[in-house]
Amino acid sequence: MLYTIFFILLVNLLEIPFSTAACYGPYVTASSIEALHEDIHLIQPLPVDCGRLSCDFYLSSSSALGSHGPLSAYGPLGMVGPVGHNIWNPTAWRPDSAHIIEWMTSNMLFGLENNPLSSAGPLSSESYHETLPSINDFGKHLQALGLWGVLGPLGPLGALGPLGPLGPTGPYNTMNLEGHHSVPVHLTATELHNFDLVEVLDESRVHESLDCSFMILGTISFHRETDSYFFNCAPNQFVTIVLVPEHSLDYFNMSLYSNSSSSEHVASSDSMKYINFIQLGLMKNTDGSFRIDVSLHEMHQFILAHSYRLIVTGSHDLLDLDKEENNIRGPHIISCSKDEI
Ligand SMILES: *[C@@H]1O[C@H](CO)[C@@H](O)[C@H](O)[C@H]1NC(C)=O
Ligand SMILES: *[C@@H]1O[C@H](CO)[C@@H](O)[C@H](O)[C@H]1NC(C)=O
Fold it and tell me: Which domain of life is it from (predicted)?
């Protein structure tokens, strides 16, 4: 009798984790920041010193995260930046260099122990955990899952993004480079780490699932069209997904799904106030195969193509995510609720 009860209890206990949907998060999106309505009093640590202006000013639609900010159509990731096929983009003029030249320039950069990705650069624990927050509270909130984390060193504007040494202005010409590519980089004199290149692909060249570091130049050609892309990320990293419109009057939205058998919805961003993004802490033991859907939410221009740039930047396992979990707290962070069945 007692054994039977024990057995039933045991089965019940074991069953709970199996019937729970996979758990994603913590994550932050443009929509979750918009839902704060510029009220930051519940954010911890509370941003107080952001330089000359008050911290909540930087959440206005005309500021850092909005359509005039660095993630916008007219920022460095957009059409007027270095990456693109137009005559004014430097990457359009780059000749297809021979592998041997790429390999040599790569060695000259990534072979140095003080290269931009090494422990002498912005991604080292000292730069990230100590120097950045010591600048001021805006700096603190450039850390992952902070209010401006999407603009910080782990996002697309940082050293791992398309404008950094792993992108098409670095040693490798990654424009139209299909497949998954990584390069060995010296973190210190003795320690090597393989980093993924940021391949830049037109949507027509995406035939297979991508890795966790790429930029897609896409277009929504009719109103109800949805573009879907598949990609895979190793666990224990921050994954930052940014959807840059190529023209400021187009408003796109995106939804992230797990590409495992359950196809669970993970997160969405459909803000019209900010440039849409999702910054996800992909915890250990989490499945990192995803599908991302991109649609046009609203269009306020009818002349130019509704083109966009989808940028995925993985932080690699440079940080231990278990230790980062409570670094920043607040209602803008959507956490994984483990007891949800
Ligand atoms: C995951 O994505 C690939 C496309 O890259 C697809 O072929 C596959 O069926 C998907 N897996 C699941 C389980 O849905
Ligand atoms: C975008 O928003 C529209 C409604 O405006 C909705 O129908 C569509 O499913 C959304 N797409 C994504 C990918 O979230």
Answer: Eukaryota
State how far the Cα of 132 lies from the Cα of 144, in Å rounded to an integer.
12
Is the pLDDT at 97 greater than 50? The verdict is yes
* Nearest-ligand number for the alpha carbon of 298: 2
The pLDDT tens digits of the residues spanning 62-82 come to 999 999 999 999 999 999 999
CA of 148 to the centre of ligand 1 (A): 33
231: nearest Cα among 176, 289, 316:
289
Average of per-residue pLDDT across 252-277: 94
Ligand 2 contact via 270 beta carbon (within 6 Å)? yes
Distance CA(237)–CA(314), nearest Å, equals 7
Does ligand 1 come within 6 angstroms of the Cβ of 114? no
Ligand 2 binding pocket includes 264 (Cβ within 6 Å): no
**Scanning the structure block, which residue is given the tokens 């090494």?**
118
**Euclidean distance between CA atoms 122 and 154, whole angstroms:** 9
Q: Coil, strand or helix: which one is 96? A: coil
Domains of the chain: 26-88+100-335 (2.60.120.380)
How far is it, in rounded angstroms, from Cα 16 to Cα 14?
A: 6
